[in-house]
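SAMPLE LOG
Freezer: B-3
Tube label: C17
Construct: single chain, 481 aa
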Amino acid sequence: MKKIVLIAILFSLVPLLHAQKYEMTFQLPAASDSILYLGQHYRDRFTPLDSAVRGPDNTYRFAGKRKFETGMYALFNKEAKKALFEFTIDGSQRFSVRTDSAFSVLNPKTDISGSHAMQQMYTYINRINQAKKQAKEIEQRKKSSEPKAKAQANEDMELLSKEIIEYENSTIRANQKYRFFHLLGMFKDPEVPESVEDKAVYFRTHYWDGVDFSDHSLVRTPDLFNKMNYYFFGILYRADFDTICRYADMVLHKIENDTLMLRYFMDYIMPRYYRSTKNIGWDATWCYLVRNYYLKGKCSWAPQSEITNKRQTCEFLEKSLIGARGAELFMADTNQSTNPQDWISSHRFPTRYVILWFWDPDCHHCQQQTPELKHLYDSLCAAGNKRFEVYAVGYDADIEKWKRYVRQYQLDWVNVGGTNVNIDYQEAYNVHGTPTMIILNEERRIIMNKVLPTKSILTFLDHYESLHPLPQHHQPAPPKR
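STRUCTURE (predicted):
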């Protein structure tokens, strides 16, 4: 019996044997919060692990028994909108940090005791910060009108660049045992060889080469989030749908069998692609990711209800994606005839393009953009260069108000509205607000499903035609009512 009790006591002491005393003190003169939290990043949020109240001289002391994993940590306040101060726990859990005045990791007057890893980190950061100041000063000198001064500035910039690259590489190599420098090496941007012709393609292709996705602790660093965010919404921000999907697959295929990592990416990027109202091709990207990841069983964390909802939303959105054939609308004009024979088709015009313009007389943006679109339309008609027809769908249930607006502002394009229509155009074209613009080509396929500024319409059409020249034999559909 005594032996059993002794074993039970020993097992109860196991957590205490692994726990360590920690004492981390931060003296931050610029801090004004009564409480600060110590925690780690998770994407663009923070996970709190401890808290400390402000003491004398704006000192925050975190103390207790706990074994902190080696890694990057942050101090943040209750708003938790950004890291107020970032540091590393690497080996020692008993250290103190004191800044001079600026509440910043880039403050050169930061004193650290008890953590050699953090001392090395700050030495590196301060050197890089100095280099940035030097580079800014050299950039100013490069604007000189004197050829000799400009040449010297270019030479100085080249020397500084070589010096910093050498410093970075040697410092990272010498300090690989410390987590901060290990992360620096892992997340360093790829070096593009001079011999490579398409440097942008090379950069995108090799962007993730150094990242070890099997290291799950990366999800608790700012580095993985920053790299992911810049990749999808920086490097690929203005890319077309095919390019976004190709490069998204490139990284997602690396982690598609790793539930933790795949979820880390998907839960962040999916809402941003879905909610975008102005980025061309992002809705198609969202649908592509749904079909190729969620509907193929790769997102095992998602409940069936979420997958079903995504499938239904995807099927709805696909009707109005770029490349889809636009549904042909037949609607009554301002005469509001109930005879379908009098209704006007959205497709049968002699122009190569048709702009479907869903608008509302009471909509503020519509009131701004409709007159601008009218001015462009009238100008083209007057010049004998009517490149598109406008099929303007009045979105207002008040028919008389809509008709008065059309007469008052002399909207001479095709005006249709009301309930006399062959199909539900809101569902057919994913119209969930006004204004909504859809541009159809000669085959009446959708080539634009975002509202373009009027000044950009002709530029867009010119660019489209440079990529899709019209065959000589092709003639747009004849007009028909």
